[in-house]
Design brief:
The complex is a heterodimer of chains A (about 675) and B (about 210).
Chain A lengths: L4 H10 L2 H37 L16 E10 L2 E10 L21 E3 L1 H9 L16 E2 L12 E6 L22 E5 L14 H21 L6 H13 L4 H34 L18 H28 L1 H6 L9 H17 L6 H33 L3 H12 L1 H23 L12 E5 L3 H18 L3 E6 L13 E6 L3 H11 L11 H4 L1 H39 L1 H9 L4 H38 L5 H23 L2 H7 L3 H4 L2
Parallel strand pairs in A: 2-5, 3-4
Antiparallel strand pairs in A: 1-2, 1-6, 3-5, 7-9, 8-9
Helix pairs in contact in A: 1-6, 2-4, 2-6, 2-7, 2-16, 4-12, 4-16, 6-7, 9-10, 10-11, 10-12, 10-18, 11-18, 12-16, 12-18, 12-19, 13-14, 16-19, 18-19
Chain B lengths: L2 H8 L7 E5 L5 H8 L22 H11 E4 L11 H11 L4 H9 L20 H13 L5 E5 L7 H18 L2 E5 L3 H4 L4 E6 L2 E7 L4
Parallel strand pairs in B: 1-4, 1-5, 2-3, 3-4
Antiparallel strand pairs in B: 5-6
Helix pairs in contact in B: 4-5, 4-6, 6-7
Classes of the chains: A alpha+beta (about 675), B alpha/beta (about 210).
Chain lengths: ~675, ~210
């Protein structure tokens, strides 16, 4: 006989009315947000890796001199604080052909200059004495294709040189302490280097840090979508059991309904991700915006995420129903408040002590570090509901107003639910608080406004200084030129023979000075502060960006979770709300209680960890003798303010629903 | 609904205990909701100083229901997350009574209603009869003029039902409040001064008792 489960589920879903449809839409909405964000996180991780792969060809893949067919010298120069990667290539005479670099149709001939589209725009925009003068003069530039670029915004030039050109000489590739990964020279036979550029090499790792922070806060509310509308389902369970349905049939019907709603939501999220790809690709990270294809995860990941979210929601719905089946009255009447125990705090402390003792020993392998992170994460999630429960009890004890009392009691009643909403912000708040305010990495001496040229020895330096004065004067740059020696550590060159020019008049003048002094560098570009601190600045910039993005996404998750849960609670508790309204409880009190339910843990826990992060960074900065990153602090404040407002707006979004479901108590209360 | 039919007993004022015994499908609960200004169809000035209730806005109506009326429903009117004493204290807190005083006044009702020792229990940890008695305490704690009870014993067994009705009538008498009750149970109706039988939206019969 054909199973009645499917047709009956379909019939009941169709006839569940507007309120049933509301619940299903909310669950589908939560699934959509979950799958969208999961896909976004996967896309960013994979895309960051792809971007890094697109830069590996620029690192010379050294081969023995006998096998080399060309020489590659990659270096970096800065314009308007942005790095321009310059790949100098020279064919070795009498050797075989060298394959074309990625993004180029052929190996560049001597005198040819290929530039990325963004660099081409910049060359057109800026006067020649600021940028174009750094490259050989050509009638027209060739274009580097997307295959050779990490981002459409990346500034890259490939210059064909003569084998004897200074730019590809051994001197051009000499390494100082700050040159690592920024300037490298080697004989090559192709472009199969494996090391990514300094500007993209840390991108994927940093994105993964954000993913680790976000994955639980995204997955848990998404899977909790299966619990939305639990009360409605419980009522239906009772009615179906009375009508003679077996527990297995009820479970099957619940699973089918949850899976259908979850799959619809997850698909909607996947579609939204696909449709928004071009817009998402415009969001800059690191070297700039993305190529759309870099953010496309492919059909396999797409299907995996849709299936995973559907499975999570189905399992969550069936698990909730199993609790109902075990003790239907208990669940319906909430006889057993979901108390949390002190053991959670003890376990958390034990884990902290364990991590402290393990990391104190010295360097850890990445796998050990990952395991420790996972343990910390688990302990953190164990502690969260306990903290919310405690908070609810403390606030409940001291509450003077009915709205605060109701909110506090709700927190103690379902601390896990409240924790699910704010958990992401609690973790992300600390990380974002720390890294957005911190100026660490820049605590070393900075020599802003200095342009330096390295020379072979002290005698050369004196001669170069005199030439530099002439060139700068001709370029209209006001600068104080000085000779640095091996004993002089107070300049940009830090103990290396050369010349420094302290330029006055802002960035425009510095760029002009770099261009003017380029001929003096014996094939090396003059360097500025950005070049010297590129590695640290890049790593910190990526961490700061990712931590802010994590905070933004956490707010998005929290706002969606809070909004959907608030609406689902209104539907589930419409009877109680209806009767309270009937008995004269002002709706304003109920609205305030619903908002405070989120505001209290948000302010105390997430606000607390963010403040801790800011405090920690401030103290470290103070110890290092630097000031806080003011623009980062402002960015953090704006992010927190906008995020908090978005959350309140999401909760307030269910106000009309509350009024609607309690509007006719005579009809809805029964 | 024939509003005029209800007007006479709705205006009788405090210290009266009319009871409606509706036939299945009739609209007595709706009529009671009209009287307590909980329905769109409402009429008459039920209390001095409030004006016509059909002229009152949502906030004033809420205040009227909160200050002058008490409510006991069949089930589900207690907030599951609040302990019993806070459920009872809530209407007072909504009126601006400080929490300490509100809880103290709420506790005052526990002993007379046989709820001693249950102050900290949550609704889910109470029996049906106990939950109804907490609901009675909550209805009476604001010292209302009228208590409206809509099938207050509908979800209780016979013995508990009798206990609850006795407590309800006793408590309203003690506080001088009028009790308007809707019930299908003749035994429950027998505790009231007047019984109005409602059939198809009309009062089909009425009787008057003298309750000892």
């Amino acid at each position: 006989m054909r199973s009645p489960v499917l047709p009956l589920t379909w019939h009941l879903a169709k006839s569940s009315g507007r309120r049933g449809l509301h619940s299903q839409l909310l669950a589908a909405g939560a699934a959509a947000v979950g799958s969208f964000l999961l896909l976004l996180m996967i896309a960013a991780s994979l895309g960051a890796g792809t971007r890094a792969d697109h830069t590996t060809w620029r690192t010379p893949d050294a081969v023995p001199a006998g096998k080399a067919t060309a020489v590659q010298a990659t270096t970096t120069t800065y314009v308007r604080h942005e790095p321009v990667t310059v790949v100098n290539l020279a064919r070795l005479p009498g050797r075989g052909p060298t394959p074309a670099p990625p993004g180029l149709s052929g190996f560049p001939k001597q005198g040819q200059v290929y530039v990325s589209p963004a660099l081409a725009d910049l060359l057109r925009e800026l006067p020649a004495d600021r940028l174009a003068g750094r490259f050989p003069e050509v009638r027209s530039y060739g274009t580097i294709g997307a295959a050779g670029l990490a981002s459409p915004d990346e500034l890259v030039a490939v210059v064909g040189r003569a084998p004897g050109d200074a730019a590809v000489s051994k001197a051009a590739g000499e390494q100082n302490y700050y040159d690592e990964n920024l300037t490298e020279r080697a004989p090559i036979a192709g472009f199969s280097g494996t090391e990514a550029s300094v500007f993209t090499g840390t991108d994927q790792g940093t994105v993964l840090l954000g993913v680790v922070l976000l994955v639980m806060p995204v997955v848990v509310p998404a899977s909790a979508a299966g619990r939305l509308g639990a009360a409605r389902r419980e009522q239906r369970l009772a009615a179906l059991r009375l009508a003679g349905a077996t527990p297995r049939q009820i479970l099957a019907m619940t699973a089918v309904e949850a899976a259908a709603v979850g799959a619809a939501g997850a698909l909607a999220g996947a579609l939204a991700y696909t449709a928004l790809l071009p817009a998402l690709a415009e969001v800059p990270y690191g070297v700039g915006a993305w190529y759309t294809g870099q953010l496309w995860v492919g059909p396999a990941w797409l299907a995996a995420v849709v299936l995973a979210v559907t499975a999570l929601i189905t399992v969550s719905a069936v698990t909730t129903l199993r609790q109902v089946a075990t003790s239907p009255l208990g669940v319906a009447q909430q006889a057993d408040p979901r108390r949390t125990r002190l053991i959670r705090l003890l376990l958390f402390v034990a884990v902290l002590v364990y991590i402290w003792s393990t990391t104190g020993g010295g360097q850890l392998k990445p796998r050990q570090l990952l395991a420790l992170l996972a343990i910390f994460y688990g302990a953190f999630w164990l502690l969260g509901p306990w903290a919310v429960d405690r908070l609810g009890r403390i606030v409940g004890r001291r509450a003077k107003r009915p709205a605060t009392l109701l909110a506090a009691r709700r927190l103690s009643d379902d601390p896990r639910g409240a924790w699910r909403t704010v958990s992401g912000l609690v973790l992300a708040g600390f990380v974002a608080g720390f890294f957005s305010v911190s100026s660490l990495g820049s605590e070393g001496p900075r020599h802003e406004g200095q342009v330096a040229v390295i020379t072979a020895n002290a005698a050369d330096a004196r001669h170069t200084a005199s030439e530099a004065r002439t060139l700068l004067r001709e370029a209209g740059v006001t600068a104080t030129v000085a000779v640095t020696s091996e004993d002089d550590y107070e300049s940009l060159l830090g103990g290396i023979n050369g010349v420094t020019a302290q330029v006055t008049g802002g960035q425009e003048q510095i760029d002009t000075a770099v261009t003017a002094l380029t001929p003096l560098g014996s094939g090396r570009y003059p360097i500025t502060q950005e070049y010297v601190s590129a590695s640290d600045d890049t790593a910190l910039d990526r961490i700061a960006t990712v931590s802010t993005a994590t905070l933004v996404l956490s707010f998005l998750v929290a706002a969606a979770s809070a909004g959907l849960t608030a609406a689902a609670n209104v539907l589930d508790r419409r009877r109680v709300y209806g009767l309270l309204r009937l008995a004269g409880t002002p709706l304003l009190v109920l609205d305030r209680a619903r908002i405070r339910e989120t505001v209290i843990p948000l302010t105390v826990l997430a606000g607390g960890t963010t403040a801790m992060g800011v405090f920690g960074a401030t103290q470290l900065n103070k110890a290092a003798g630097t000031t806080i990153n003011t623009s980062g602090a402002v960015q953090l404040a704006i992010c927190v303010a906008v995020g908090a407002l978005a959350m309140f707006a999401a909760i307030a979004g269910s106000k009309p629903l509350l009024r609607k479901v309690t509007a006719g108590p005579a009809q809805t209360a029964d | 609904m024939r509003a005029t039919r209800w007007r006479s007993w709705a205006r009788r004022g405090p210290a009266s205990r009319p009871c409606c015994t509706p036939s299945p499908g009739s609209s007595a609960p709706t009529a009671v909701r009209c009287c307590c200004a909980a329905s769109e169809a409402r009429w008459g000035p039920p209390a001095e100083g409030w004006g016509r209730i059909d002229d009152l806005g949502e906030n004033r109506l809420s205040a009227l229901r909160r200050k002058r009326f008490g409510f006991v429903f069949q089930f589900g009117q207690l907030l599951p997350e609040l302990p019993a004493e806070e459920n009872v204290a809530l209407p007072l807190m909504l009126e601006g009574v400080p929490r300490k005083e509100a809880v103290a006044r709420a506790r005052h009702w526990f002993a007379p209603l046989g709820l001693e020792g249950l102050e900290q229990r949550r609704p889910g940890q109470l029996s049906g009869g106990q939950a109804q008695r907490v609901a009675i305490a909550r209805a009476l704690v604001v010292e209302p003029d009228v208590v409206f009870a809509d099938e207050p014993t509908g979800a209780l067994d016979q013995r508990t039902s009798t206990e609850v009705v006795q407590l309800l009538t006793f408590a309203t008498r003690e506080t001088g409040a009028a009790l308007v009750m809707v019930t299908h149970d003749a035994d429950v109706a027998a505790h009231c001064d007047r019984v109005l039988h409602v059939r198809d939206g009309r009062i089909s019969d009425h009787s008057q008792f003298t309750v000892a």
